[in-house]
Amino acid sequence: MNGLNIIQHPLVQHKLTFLRDRNTPHTDFRRLTRELTGFMLYEVMKDFPLQEIEVETPLIKTKTQVLAREISIVLILRAGLGMVDGLLDLVPSARVGHVGLYRDEKTLHPVEYYVKLPQNLSETDVIIIDPMLATGGSAVDAIHLVKESGAKTIRFVCMVAAPEGVRNLRSKHSDVPIYTAALDERLNENGYILPGLGDAGDRLFGTK
Ligand code: PRP
Ligand code: URA
Q1: Number of domains in the chain
Q2: Which of 2, 32, 138, 175 can bridge 110 by disulfide, Cβ–Cβ 3.0-4.6 Å?
Q3: pLDDT the model gives residue 146
Q4: CA angle, corner 73, sides to 109 and 19, nearest 5?
């Protein structure tokens, strides 16, 4: 599908397998989420613009390149917390925004409880992170909030996506590409992704 990038790198797929395994304890789940997110970032950022600068090596002056724009990461609480360090390991200068959303268990609609975003979103490349794209309701709302704050270049990164969520997100925000490690089969009657990996927040934080 247009705008959907499934990252097939063997290391990403290898780590995703252990994230799916119900026997993986939360300590390993947390580490694997961080590592997998870092690997995904190579693909997400592969066409980010560069600008030329001059540096002096120990021998001579030379022209070289650095990222042209600042990067902002916006994480969807709470499970997005598990991914943020994987990105900050590689882009330590990124500013970090937080969007607090939880899914109402009955309606599956997202409920907003916290928003704090960097001020200069319009001048940065924004990467929104949440491990799970299920109905897509949370991602659609988070992207809406980020756009309201002025963001123009936005990418959405998750670990597992359902076809329902991809369709929803692409229909509401066709300008936002999706990056995922897997496109799974479908949602179950409770809005969980099948085969999925369960409740990402609970598995990250050991709350169930
Ligand atoms: C999970 C997940 C996403 C959302 C995805 O969060 O981390 O934010 O569900 O579902 P959707 O695509 O149908 O909106 P949850 O609501 O369980 O909150 P939590 O991270 O605080 O546990
Ligand atoms: N949120 C999760 O954490 N897992 C799912 O499968 C769906 C939504």
Answers
A1: 1
A2: 138
A3: 98
A4: 65
Q: Could you tell me if residue 87 is left (phi over 0), alpha (psi between -120 and 50 degrees) or otherwise beta? A: alpha
Ligand 2 centroid – CA 132 distance (Å): 6
pTM: 0.97
CATH number of the CATH domain containing 51? 3.40.50.2020
Query: Is residue 165 lining ligand 1, measured as CB closer than 6 Å?
Result: yes
Cα 162 to middle of ligand 2, angstroms: 10
Tell me, what's the pLDDT at 53? 98
Distance, C-alpha 31 to centroid of its chain: 16
pLDDT at 2: 80
Give the per-residue pLDDT at 1. 73
- Convert 104-135 to b/e letters by CB count within 10 Å (16 or more is b): eeeeeebeeeebebbeebeebbbbbbbbbbbb
Which residue segment(s) compose the domain that 124 sits in? 4-205
Q: Is 103 in the pocket of ligand 1 (CB under 6 A)?
A: yes
Per-10-residue mean pLDDT, the chain, length 208: 93 98 98 98 96 98 97 98 98 97 92 96 97 98 97 98 98 98 97 98 95
Clarify whether 199 is annotated catalytic.
yes
